[in-house]
């Protein structure tokens, strides 16, 4: 299986039209970017870490990590995932690195869009990074063919839907989110079995959640309920009134939102402003303070959703959560949220893979690193137990790793807590 990473993949789309736009993408790089060049696909030539830490890695033992994350656009709040991953690795640099290896970073804004993702991927891959972190599904979708054009693509840690990873056909992508279909069905079961709703409306962002529509229709039938309407809501839409009226006209007694937190916030604000009192539900992508800020605390009150990582602002005090708070406070103050935990998980898994390769005595290259990731399966890393195999690498989180939360008093709390 691993030898497949060395085969030459056919270029599925032309990149000629993109070449003239690379400079525009490069200009969006965040303040954590580095200008270090790469002497091989495995390591940057510099022996210090750009933008952070006190790492003192030997020359040739600094690993370049490319980060494609939204800094602007409707998904900008998700960009903290990239920030917290970098924070985790900077903290490792402070400790002298991982088995003598330190980390350097190049950070680009993918704008949360398909086109932005393609441009960021092309620019980052030109520097031959050891690994990539890719945040949000639309940019991932835009990156797929660019990645496939690489002879030996780097391993990619992605905060995207597991279903999107499956659909890409890429074998070198490791997901830290759930499969959105799994999440949607999990929340639907709660809506029907626990809260006794029968007629559910689905609001979904077609740029990443259209994959949930057909499975939810079948799941609703199997539960004795009905998906009465499936309404596409673009990320840039702010007027939610027509969508809400469409759902009410279909007889909905509840609604599930599979869209960005800001969109969900606009939806709640519009519904409550019109006196619509049907309950709304969401997925882990809405476990974001932006939802409450956009909707207002009163409109968001009672909103239910699922999550896979601990909501770090709810008083959790595990050793890993405490370290997360300390490190993000130092290197990424805005990343101390649920989405920050996703990036932290990427950093933890990446560091564990590097340590595993070093412990094995093997050469630090992409193939050995990917093999080391699979060898971690069943071990506790970061906030969760790793569950990666060559045939099942689209998500670290399975169905039994999900929990329900609700908005109460202007914050997210465990349901029933």
Any overview of this molecule?
The structure is a single chain. With 417 residues, this protein is α/β, with parallel strands linked by helices. Helix content is 38%, strand content 16%. It has helices at 16-19, 22-26, 80-94, 114-125, 137-148, 162-168, 180-194, 213-222, 241-249, 261-273, 289-295, 297-300, 319-331, 338-360, 366-375; strands spanning 62-69, 102-109, 131-135, 156-159, 173-175, 199-204, 226-232, 254-258, 280-282, 304-307, 380-381, 384-385, 403-408, 411-414. The strands form three sheets. The protein has a seven-stranded mixed beta sheet, sandwiched between helices. A five-stranded parallel beta sheet has the order 2-1-3-4-5, sandwiched between helices. Strand 13 and strand 14 form a beta hairpin. Helix 3 packs across helix 14 (338-360).
Observed structural traits:
single chain; 417 residues; alpha/beta; seven-stranded mixed sheet; five-stranded parallel sheet; disordered N terminus
List the helices and strands and how they pair.
Layout: H1 16-19, H2 22-26, E1 62-69, H3 80-94, E2 102-109, H4 114-125, E3 131-135, H5 137-148, E4 156-159, H6 162-168, E5 173-175, H7 180-194, E6 199-204, H8 213-222, E7 226-232, H9 241-249, E8 254-258, H10 261-273, E9 280-282, H11 289-295, H12 297-300, E10 304-307, H13 319-331, H14 338-360, H15 366-375, E11 380-381, E12 384-385, E13 403-408, E14 411-414
Parallel strand pairs: 1-2, 1-3, 3-4, 4-5, 6-7, 6-8, 8-9, 9-10
Antiparallel strand pairs: 10-13, 11-12, 13-14
């Amino acid at each position: 299986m691993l030898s497949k990473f060395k085969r030459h993949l056919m270029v599925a789309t032309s990149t000629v039209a993109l070449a003239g736009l690379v400079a525009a993408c490069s200009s969006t790089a965040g303040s954590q970017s580095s200008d270090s060049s790469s002497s091989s696909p495995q390591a940057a030539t510099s022996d210090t870490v750009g933008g952070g830490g006190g790492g003192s890695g030997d020359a040739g033992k600094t690993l370049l990590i490319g980060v494609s994350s939204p800094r602007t656009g409707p998904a900008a709040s998700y960009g903290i995932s990239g920030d917290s991953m970098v924070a985790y690795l900077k903290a490792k640099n402070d400790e002298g690195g991982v088995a003598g290896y330190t980390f350097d970073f190049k950070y680009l804004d993918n704008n949360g869009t398909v086109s932005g993702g393609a441009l960021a991927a092309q620019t980052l891959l030109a520097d031959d990074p050891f690994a990539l972190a890719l945040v949000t599904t639309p940019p991932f979708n835009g990156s797929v063919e660019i990645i496939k054009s690489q002879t030996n693509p780097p391993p990619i840690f992605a905060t995207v839907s597991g279903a999107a990873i499956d659909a890409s056909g890429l074998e070198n992508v490791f997901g830290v989110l759930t499969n959105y279909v799994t999440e949607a069905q999990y929340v639907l079961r709660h809506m029907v079995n626990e809260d006794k709703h029968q007629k559910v409306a689905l609001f979904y962002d077609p740029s990443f959640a259209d994959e949930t529509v057909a499975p939810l229709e079948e799941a609703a039938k199997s539960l004795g309920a009905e998906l009465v309407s499936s309404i596409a809501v673009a990320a840039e839409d702010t007027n939610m009134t027509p969508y809400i009226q469409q759902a009410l006209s279909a007889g909905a007694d509840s609604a599930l939102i599979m869209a960005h937190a800001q969109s969900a916030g606009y939806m709640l604000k519009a519904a409550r402003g019109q006196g619509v009192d049907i309950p709304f539900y969401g997925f882990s992508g809405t476990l974001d303070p932006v939802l409450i800020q956009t909707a207002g605390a009163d409109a968001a009150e009672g909103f239910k959703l699922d999550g896979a990582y601990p909501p770090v602002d709810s008083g959790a005090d595990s050793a890993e959560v405490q370290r997360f708070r300390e490190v993000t406070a130092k290197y990424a103050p805005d990343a101390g949220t649920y989405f920050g935990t996703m990036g932290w998980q990427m950093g933890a898994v990446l560091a564990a893979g590097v340590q595993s390769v070093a412990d094995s005595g093997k050469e630090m290259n992409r193939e050995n690193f990917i093999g080391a990731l699979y060898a971690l399966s069943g071990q506790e890393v970061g906030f969760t137990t790793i569950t990666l195999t060559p045939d099942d690498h689209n998500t670290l989180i399975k169905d039994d790793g999900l929990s329900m939360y609700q908005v109460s008093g202007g914050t997210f709390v465990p349901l029933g807590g």
